[in-house]
Each structure stands twice: as C-alpha cells, then as structure tokens.
Design goal:
Layout: E1 12-16, E2 19-21, E3 29-30, E4 32-36, E5 39-44, E6 58-62, E7 67-70, E8 72-77, H1 79-85, E9 89-90, H2 99-111, E10 119-124, H3 137-141, E11 149-153, E12 158-161, H4 163-169, E13 181-185, E14 192-198, H5 211-227, E15 230-238, H6 240-251, E16 258-264, H7 275-281, E17 296-300, H8 330-342, E18 346-351, H9 354-365, E19 379-382, H10 388-396, E20 400-403, H11 407-410, H12 412-419, H13 421-424, H14 430-436, H15 453-462, H16 479-484, H17 488-492, E21 511-514, E22 531-536, E23 539-543
Parallel strand pairs: 1-6, 2-7, 8-15, 9-10, 10-11, 15-16, 16-17, 17-18, 18-19, 19-20
Antiparallel strand pairs: 1-4, 2-3, 4-5, 7-21, 11-12, 12-14, 13-14, 21-22, 22-23
Helix pairs in contact: 1-5, 5-6, 8-9
The structure holds zinc ion (ZN).
Length: 544
Amino acid sequence: VFHLGAIYNTKDYILHNANVITMDPDLPAASVIKISDGKIIYVGNEIGTVDPLRGADTEMIDLQGKTVLPGFIDTHMHPALYGLFLLEIDCRPAEADTVAGIAAKVHAQAQKTPVGQWLKGWGWDDSKLAERRNPTRWDLDDAAPNHPVLLKRTCGHVAVVNSKALELAGINADTPDPEGGHIARDPQTGEPTGIMEERAIELFDVPIGSVEDLKKGLKVALADFARWGFTTVHDMSCTGLNMIAYQELLAEGELNVKLRPWYWALKQMDWDPSLEHLIALGMHSGFGSEMIRIQGVKLMLDGSVGGRTAAMAEPFEGEENNRGILFMPEDAFCSEAHKALEAGLRIAVHAIGERAIEICLKAIETAPATVDIQEMRNRIEHCAIPTDDQLRRIKEMELVAGSSVGFVYWLGDSYIRNLGRERLKRVYPQKTFQEWGIVAPANSDVPICDGNPMVGLYAAVTRKTMSGDIFDDQQNISVEDALKGYTTAAAFASFEEDTIGTLTVGKDADLIVVSANPLEIEAEELKDIEVELTMMKGSITHQK
Ligand SMILES: [Zn+2]
C-alpha cells in the first residue's frame, strides 16, 4: 500500500449534462457519469446520487454539454528524458529557429555555468532551421570555447558537439567510426564537423542527472502530461534511476499518471542496461502496482528517418548507398531477445526501416518453443514502413504495432525529403494496420515530438505535415478510429482493456473533458482541441 498523497483524493463526483463518448461499443453515448473511490460506478442518463449514504460528499459537475472522453494513453514516450531535457538548453524550433539562435542560447548558458562543466541541450531540427543545415562544432566554439557542449537533435539519434567536447573525448580526424555510429567529417580535411550519429554520441562522457534533478524535471513533465490529457503513459527507456524517481514521486503523492515502464535492455545510446538485472531478480512483465507496472524491455534496432539512420530496404532519397544503420547484427539481436522472452519479459523493439523490422520479426519467429508468442503482445515500436509480408507476420504473431502516427505531422516534411513520395503510402500505415486487424496504438515519443495527442489525431485523420503538405492520401482513418489509438488500442498494449481505455462501469475513472467534440468538428480543427479537465482514478490532475 502506497502513501496516498495530495492528488489521490477519495471524493465522489457526478458529471452531468455531458456529451460522453465512452469508446465502449455496448454503450457508446451517455450524459451522466458517476464516480466513487476512483472508479466509474454509473454511465447513463439519470442523475440521481452516487451513493445515498455519502451523497453529501459528492461533487456535482455540470459540464454544460461539453464532451467527455476516456483519459488518453500514450504508449511510447520518454518521461524521464523529457523531464531532464526541460532542465537543459531548449533548442526546439519554437525557441531557436536559426543556427545563430542556438549558439546564442549556448552562449547565455555558458555565462551562467562554471568553466569546464558540460552544457547540454536538445531539440534542434535542421529541417526547421532557417539555414536548413545541421549546426557544426565551429558554430558552437565561439559561443562556448571553454565548456564542452553536446546538443541532441530532436530525434535523439544525432547530436552536435563543440571542439572542447571533441578534445576531451580525444576525437580527431584519425578517430575511426565506432560500430553502429558515424562521425561526420569535413570532405576536404577529414576533420570531425561535430555531428555525431547514433553510437558515436556515446563517445562523450556526459554526466547524467541525479534523482533530485530527475524529479525536478519530471514534475514539470507530469504537469504537461495531465494538460495533454494523459492518464497513463509508457516509459520506453526506463532505467533504475527513473524507477527510483517514479517511486519517490508516487510516495510523495506527485505521480499524476499511471506509469507503464519498459526497461532499457542493453547498453545502447546513453542508458544503462537492465536486461541481465531483471532476469537475475526474476522480474516478469506485469509486476508492480496499478500506478507503476513493469511491461517488459525495450531494444533498439535502427535509427530515425529524419537523421537518415533508419535501416531501410532502399537508399534514402537522393543517395545511392545510404540505407541507414542497423544497431545490431541479427544473431546478437536474436540471442538478447530470446533471453528476455524466455525470462517472461515482453519485448518492445524500436524498428523503423524494413531491414530493422525484418530482424525483429525473425527474432520473435525463432523464439524458443516454450514461449507463447501469440499471448504476449510483444511490440514493434514505430513500425514505420512494414512490407506486406511483414504485416502478415505481425498479425500471425499478434504483435502490437506502436505506430508513431504523430510523426506524420511533426516530422512528415523530413520524411517526404528523405524517403520520397512513393514510399510514403506505406509509412505509418494506419489504414493497412486496420485492414490486417493489427492493433496499432498511437504515441508521441515525447520528447522526440511534442506530446499533444490532438495533433496525433489530426495526423491520423488528415495525413498532413506541419507545413500543410499532404503526406499521402491512402492511409487516412476516421476520427473514431484515431481515438482508439489513444484509448482502447492503447489499453490493449498493456493488457489493461478491462480497467482503462473506455468509460465503462467498473473501470478506473480516467477521463478528460475537451473543448470541442472531435466527432463533429472539421478535421482541420482537431489539432486545436484543448483538454479542459483531466481526471485520473477519480482525482482531478489538470483543470483549465
Ligand atoms: Zn522512443
């Protein structure tokens, strides 16, 4: 039993005069919801009282016709990374839209930081910078000659460092590329430009935040999650440090979403590996409490489309040989995946390009016979561009496709440039997933993209990019189906279809009140819907 902090109240509520979209096919619409002890005890059209004995404690909320939806579930994000980023130099396009603007922010931070200490930042996106290019070490050197600097691109798969950082890491023109990584070089001199791709980012000894830092950042992040309407989120890169912070926040009554952690399995990117520890401790998927429940482990197979590092079948647009980077050879990957599966740990595998998806499927297909794959709901994360044959196998093994459909909006313009038009019809193929009967919940991948799920809905329905370009006209789905990606399909992804995902008697009182009815407004307006109230287990976690 955990300590019940401030946000976990036991008040009862009657929400009435509401337009309730339950997402439950047995009772799709209602005007009244009653909530007691964090559970939904009534859905229908009669007001009455919650409980005659406790009627006096019951708060009546007249929603004046406003729309109520199930609380949203984000099945793939990085809460701790986002929290820590919120404490770093913010290089997102809204904050700095030129290379010089980024350098100015670095300079300002350098003024406030003791010489020699690392300056960390995140969020730049060359496709949204006025110069339409990556920043280089030389752009940053004037801004911070005496501090090592490392700024991650929005995708997290590419970073830029300054000369001080290169010097500390001992990297020069003679340094070979590490396995699974790439050091970009000046074509004339061979000097590193400061751009580091994939595992080359690990060459820098950047200090990681403390639990206190993490909790500080997470508190800001959690407020965003509630504001975006999330009542459950999956952490796709959980480490021991994250888990300590989550448990402390829970004990302190600050945890306002249910967390579904996927432990980071191997030494990949910057995070510590957990697979061996979990196996040694006998941890199985499903261990935990209703607020924090372990899902399994996350493995990485390739990079990103924006950074041209996803493992594609065909070269990126305009290149002859670059088909991206595979993080691990097939044999090594299969052996790690099998270890997890045999130990009762579900796997979620980052696989974007066809070559990465292929290795993921092979690993699951060759799992030991003792593992009941079809019952496990293992996941392919992003699953951006599966082939027909791969779709068939995904269905056969009942895998969940963690489709990052919001990328169509946020990163779509770089996808168009890097993949070319023809391939886009197969990218984040929501319609095709539906036709195959593949469960494909949506996700934001915060902080890779902004977390607002209304933009994800918009992308799924309109297939439009941030610049207004049409990504494709083949994979559009209805608003109702897009909503499933954040509700019913997402609940399925953590075996929670009996407790969350719809507004149904007996389920948790996880719900949101929104500013407009998504089923009635113009598709163009979907992305502007605001969450006016969020309730998690019957406690109000956000109110506008
Ligand atoms: Zn991710």
